[in-house]
Amino acid sequence: MSPRRNRRAAFGPPPRRGGAPWAQETEEGPDGEWIVRAVPGAGAVKPYRCPGCDQTIPPGVGHVVAWRADDRDGRDRRHWHRPCWQARDRRSPRIMRSRGAPRY
């Protein structure tokens, strides 16, 4: 018989006991102050469209929900992939060009 393992996995944060299921914090960025909430994969039950890459975030995938701090009721919330949220200040706006338009 092998010994019992009482250790948690070496990756990821330790499990939370009690309290709110989602951690919420305020982030200051060049585009203002944002309230950011991390949504775990188990809490993501609907598909969302990421405004950073314009791709779908499928159900079951952990992501970030963010809204401006001055929007108290959170009506303007947006669901982002974590890497897209972290790269939002390095990303240029997506410009749709016609086929023959110059690229400069």
Can you walk me through this structure?
This protein has 1 helix and 6 strands; from the N terminus they run ββββββα. The model has no long low-confidence stretch (mean pLDDT about 80). The longest helix is centred in the last third of the chain and has 5 residues. It has a domain of about 55 residues. Helices cover about 5% and strands about 25% of the residues. It is extended and about 70 Å long. About 10% of the residues are buried. The strands form 2 sheets. A 4-stranded antiparallel sheet has the order 1-2-5-6. By secondary structure, it is mostly beta strands.
Unreliable residue runs: none
Q: Residue share in helices? A: under 10%
- Individual helix count: 1
**SSE topology string:** EEEEEEH
Strand content: 25-35%
Question: Looking at the structure, what is the overall shape?
Answer: extended
Number of strands: 6
Task: Kindly report how far apart the N and C termini lie.
Answer: 68 Å
Largest sheet: 4 strands, antiparallel
Oligomer: single chain
Structural class: mainly beta
Overall radius of gyration: 18 Å
Mean pLDDT equals: 79
Q: Report strand order across the widest sheet.
A: 1-2-5-6
Protein name: ATP/GTP-binding protein
Region (Disordered): 1-32
